[in-house]
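Supplementary Note 3. Input sequence used for the single-chain structure prediction.
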Amino acid sequence: MEKEKIEKPQNKCELQKILDIIGGKWSMSIIYALIMGKKRFKELERMIPGISTRMLVKELKNMEQNDIVNRNAFATVPPTVEYALTEKGRKLEPIIQELQKWGIEYGIAED
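The predicted structure, written as C-alpha cells, is reproduced below.
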C-alpha cells in the first residue's frame, strides 16, 4: 500500500510572510482583545498579561503597517489613542476561534 504524499508548497516564503504579520508571540492575543471592540493602549496592556509596553508598541506598529489594526489618535491632553481591527483584521476572527476550539479540545486552553 502506497502512502499518499503530502505536497509541500512550492514557495515556502508565502507562509512565512503570513507568519511575519500574525505569527508574533503577542499578535494573536492583541487580535483576540480587539475582536471585542476598540481598545485604548492601556486597556490592551492590561488585557494581555506578560506583554511589555515596548513589545506592545512594536506589535501594534507592525500590525498597523500590515493593515490589520487601525490606530486613531485624538488631540487631547494627555493624548488618547484607540486601536481597532480593520476589515482585513476582522477576517482573522474565525481563524482565532478555530484555534481556540482546537486548544479546548486538546486541553491546552480553557472554555
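DSSP finds six helices and three strands in the chain. The helical segments are 13-22, 27-35, 41-47, 53-65, 87-90, 93-105.
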